[in-house]
């Protein structure tokens, strides 16, 4: 059932071109210029006119929510807040009738997320579920939703569910923004095409497999790792750090690259690997200076970059090169090398990558 792969995690990482394709299939029609999502269509006025959108999730799903915050604000011009379910539910949050809440969950059973939604629902919010497991508790308490269709995820660390969440959330934002008139037609059409091209770019990124396996050997003995990114790639830095911690037990922190100088820069010396998620986007020049700041302190720089980025290639100790994509869909591709890096460092350290210690696939206790 592992299809010849040594672990479910690796199998699921490699399934992503297919799972993303399945997620887009039947929804995205580039020629017609349409996105078909019944759950969104049925609530379109409500979502379009929402004063704000709240996103509630935990862990990796929360990281997908952070990417969605940037995407929704850009394309729909609706303010978005992303909440840890556990913090939201215990603090007597302000929920108004008519608020739209997007719940993101692979399992659909995460206790903190479920309870947070139940209380928000009582207060009159509309719950929109982005869930992988069909018929799960969160799917059932949602008023509407869109499944991620990634298939069963067995590895405890979430990989293919995450990219499917990003694909669904991006489609929702595109559809709402288009209906609302906050995206111009050319950009809308361009982004539909960009989304359609994601599966093949993910396949190309997976060709980094052997290169990343070698990098894992080189860096496996580091005590700590720092992951940095800006803009749409900032949540991917958080996700890269989370994957590495849970799979290899190496201490890792993710930060917005510019925030580094407000504290974490104190950690930098010649023993610290710093992973930059630095694909070509509107933040590129800024992140180049952040890389310089690390190099000036002798940190080791590993960078996920786009093709033909000689500038960063010259500065970094090691690079992981992925195909260029519009910054809005880039996270779907830039996360791939980080998943592989966590996997191979875990393997190099002899860890049980499919079942990391102390973790459960679905956290049904609070
Ligand atoms: C990390 C991971 C967890 C889950 C979190 C939420 O790899 O798998 O952080 O993302 O427990 O789970 P779901 O999405 O099932 O609500």
- Unreliable stretches, pLDDT < 50, 5 or more residues? none
N/C terminus separation: 32 Å
Quote the beta fraction: 15-25%
- Radius of gyration based on Cα positions: 20 Å
Describe the main β-sheet briefly: 5 strands, parallel
Total number of beta strands: 12
Output the structural class. alpha/beta
Order of helices and strands: HHEEHHEHEHEHEHEHHHHEHEEHEHEH
- The helicity comes to 40-55%
Task: For the largest sheet, list the strands in their spatial order.
Answer: 4-3-5-6-7
Provide a quick synopsis of the model:
With 366 residues, the protein is an alpha/beta fold.
Notes on the protein architecture:
The protein has 16 helices and 12 strands. With 366 residues, it is of the alpha/beta class. The strands form 3 sheets. A 5-stranded parallel sheet has the order 4-3-5-6-7, sandwiched between helices.
Structure characteristics:
single chain; 366 residues; alpha/beta; five-stranded parallel sheet; 16 helices; 12 strands; globular; binds fructose -6-phosphate; glutamine-fructose-6-phosphate transaminase (isomerizing) activity; EC 2.6.1.16
Give the topology, please.
Layout lengths: L7 H7 L1 H9 L3 E2 L4 E2 L2 H4 L2 H5 L4 E5 L1 H18 L3 E5 H6 L9 E6 L5 H12 L3 E6 L5 H5 L2 E4 L12 H21 L4 H12 L1 H9 L2 H11 L4 E6 L4 H15 L2 E6 L16 E5 L6 H12 L4 E7 L3 H6 L2 E5 L7 H19 L18
Parallel strand pairs: 3-4, 3-5, 5-6, 6-7, 8-9, 8-10, 10-11, 11-12
Antiparallel strand pairs: 1-2
Helix pairs in contact: 2-9, 2-11, 5-9, 5-13, 9-10, 11-16, 12-16, 13-16
The site of fructose -6-phosphate (F6R) has 15 residues, from helix 5 and helix 13.
């Amino acid at each position: 059932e592992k299809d010849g792969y040594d672990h479910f995690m690796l199998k699921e990482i490699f399934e992503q071109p297919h799972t993303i394709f399945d997620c887009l299939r039947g929804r995205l029609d580039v020629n017609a210029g349409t996105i078909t999502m019944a759950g969104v269509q049925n609530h379109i006025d409500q979502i379009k006119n929402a004063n704000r959108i709240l996103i509630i999730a935990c862990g990796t799903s929360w990281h997908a929510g952070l990417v969605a915050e940037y995407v929704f604000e850009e394309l729909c011009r609706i303010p978005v807040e992303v909440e840890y379910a556990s913090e939201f539910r215990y603090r007597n949050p302000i929920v108004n009738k008519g608020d739209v809440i997007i719940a993101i969950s692979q399992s659909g059973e995460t206790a903190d997320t479920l309870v947070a939604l139940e209380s928000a629902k009582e207060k009159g919010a509309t719950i929109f579920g982005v869930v992988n497991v069909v018929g799960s508790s969160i799917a059932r308490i949602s008023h509407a939703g869109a499944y991620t269709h990634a298939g069963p995820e067995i590895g405890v660390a979430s990989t293919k569910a995450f990219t499917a969440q990003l694909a669904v959330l991006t489609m929702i934002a595109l559809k709402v923004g288009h209906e609302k008139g906050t995206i111009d037609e050319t950009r809308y059409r361009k982004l539909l095409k960009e989304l359609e091209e994601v599966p093949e770019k993910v396949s190309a990124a997976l060709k980094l497999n052997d290169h990343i396996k070698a990098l894992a050997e080189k860096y496996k003995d580091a005590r700590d790792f720092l992951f940095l990114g800006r803009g749409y790639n900032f949540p991917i830095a958080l996700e890269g750090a989370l994957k590495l911690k849970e799979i290899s037990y190496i201490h890792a922190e993710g930060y917005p690259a510019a925030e580094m100088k407000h504290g974490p820069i104190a950690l930098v010396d010649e023993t610290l690997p710093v992973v930059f998620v630095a694909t070509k986007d509107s933040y590129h020049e800024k992140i180049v200076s952040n890389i310089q700041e690390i190099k000036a302190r002798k940190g080791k720089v590993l960078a996920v970059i786009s093709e033909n980025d000689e500038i960063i290639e010259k500065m970094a100790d090691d690079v992981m090169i992925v195909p260029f994509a519009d910054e809005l869909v880039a996270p779907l591709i830039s996360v791939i090398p980080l998943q592989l890096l966590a996997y191979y460092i875990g393997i190099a350290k002899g860890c049980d990558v499919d079942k990391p210690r102390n973790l459960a696939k679905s956290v049904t206790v609070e």
